[in-house]
């Protein structure tokens, strides 16, 4: 059941800013690993004259002279595009970058060649040579609980997967400061829920908590349409709720 009143703004005003910072260093490491940063932004109108900020769609007059449009960061994502056919050995490049990437490399790549293991290669259609790793997805607390992380992630994957033979992720909790997750059963419940969200996109468990998604997966395209429909429904419900007159 959708609870639009708990959202802090119109979810259809969420959008992504995807960037790659090229330091022009020309090293084998840089040729192998590309880090792509995604900022999740919410576009809203800041009402001047004593009123609090509201979503853009909530403004009665789109040309209101007392409003200014601003983009507010409400989350972020980090992806790595790993080129297995250029630069240095991708296995060791991922090992040096982070522990999380190293764990992925240990499951998917051959240590000697830096390419996909023969077992992994047999599972994947040859539609590219690179590996896209969804490393981190974070949403501010007030935007969670509505499946928006999956909605946003599938859009970012769609933009970044060109030339990739596989997309990988390792579902886990990034907000380690949450006190409510100190209980092991609650931790496991939230982790399982995160994994279910990625499975809806089309990710499937391969081994050791590493999930794989083929860019050619029919689930990916179908779920993108489903998620866009859900986003539209959430936005319509939110606008209907916020437009209701308050009781005197």
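-> sequence recovered:
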């Amino acid at each position: 059941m959708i609870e639009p009143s708990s959202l802090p703004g119109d979810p259809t005003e969420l959008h992504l800013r995807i960037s790659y910072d090229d330091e022009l260093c020309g090293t084998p490491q840089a040729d192998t690993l590309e880090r792509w940063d995604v900022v999740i932004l919410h576009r809203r109108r800041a009402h001047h004259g004593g009123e609090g900020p509201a979503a853009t769609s909530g403004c009665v007059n789109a040309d209101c002279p007392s409003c200014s449009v601003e983009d507010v960061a409400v989350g972020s994502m980090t992806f790595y595009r790993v080129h297995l056919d250029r630069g240095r050995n991708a296995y060791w490049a991922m090992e040096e970058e982070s522990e999380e990437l190293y764990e992925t490399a240990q499951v998917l790549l051959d240590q000697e060649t830096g390419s996909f293991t023969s077992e992994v290669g047999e599972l994947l259609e040859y539609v590219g040579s690179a590996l896209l790793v969804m490393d981190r997805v974070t949403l501010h607390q007030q935007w969670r609980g509505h499946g928006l992380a999956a909605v946003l992630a599938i859009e970012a994957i769609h933009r970044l997967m060109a030339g990739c033979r596989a997309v990988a992720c390792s579902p886990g909790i990034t907000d380690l400061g949450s006190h409510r997750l100190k209980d092991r059963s609650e931790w496991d419940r939230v982790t399982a829920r995160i994994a279910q969200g990625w499975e809806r996109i089309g990710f499937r468990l391969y081994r050791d908590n590493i999930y794989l998604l083929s860019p050619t997966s029919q689930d990916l395209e179908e779920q993108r349409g489903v998620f866009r429909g859900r986003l539209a429904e959430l936005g319509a419900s939110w606008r209907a709720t916020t437009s209701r007159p308050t009781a005197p």
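The first strand starts at residue 14 and ends at 20.
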